[in-house]
């Protein structure tokens, strides 16, 4: 899915306030603590609360293996001033186990609660969308958001995603099936949005 450029752990994406880099073993503590926060985990499908340390360590190993194989791109979010300290995770991966109405790769993310309200995840999501379409030549990208998570919906809409149906998925942290909206961004929509942004800044 992703090219050789992204398959080395020196690869990173820099934005105005963030470094997006490969997850490292030393990130496991922060991942367990931040992602295992009930306020964060309940907004995801697969993260339990609490999140055991060994599961965070296993996640890092799987993410690095997937990145190296080009099967996806999972990145740790770090403030530029503290590139060694992860505050969230964002990734694009295949999601064959989901009931989403598309087989497109899936954009997923979470951000530690201390960083909420700063617009950091929107900044990271825009950078990952750009990487998918510009570096990887992607054709279509999917995502989903629980109905009770308007902040995540705003992030997707800001990146150009459009609604693509309604469904549900099981949330491990909630222990129940949760209604969710699916979203999609295709290459034509990305190019159109990119062109309008460039025109607006000329």
From TrEMBL:
Boundaries of every N-acetyltransferase domain copy: 17-162
Record keywords, A-Z: Acyltransferase, Transferase
InterPro entries membership: Acyl_CoA_acyltransferase, GNAT_dom, N-acetyltransferase
Record family assignment: Belongs to the acetyltransferase family. RimJ subfamily.
Descriptive protein name: N-acetyltransferase domain-containing protein
Top-level taxonomic group: Bacteria
